[in-house]
Design goal:
By secondary structure, the protein is an alpha/beta fold. It is built from three helices and three strands. It has a three-stranded parallel beta sheet. Helix 2 links the parallel strand 2 and strand 3.
């Protein structure tokens, strides 16, 4: 619906299934670290955002750099 490439999308989740869904869709993933489940499930393969504010900071950096690799 947004008509953007998957590489421009970011999924935030707290379950391993969320990460698998993001991988299946070809989108970037980050752990919702404000959820106790995410802190338990995070495995180091994806960024752990500790608060929704961290998400805003990461997105502003991404916008400046043009890459989600900077999350």
């Amino acid at each position: 619906r947004l008509k953007v490439p998957p590489t421009y999308a970011l999924m935030i989740g707290d379950q391993p299934e969320d990460r698998l869904a993001a991988q299946g869709a070809g989108v970037h993933f980050a752990w919702a670290g404000w959820s106790p489940l995410a802190r338990t499930n995070a495995d180091g393969d994806a960024p752990l955002l500790l608060s929704p504010h961290d998400l805003l900071i990461a997105l502003s950096r991404t916008r400046e750099s043009g890459s989600f690799g900077q999350l």
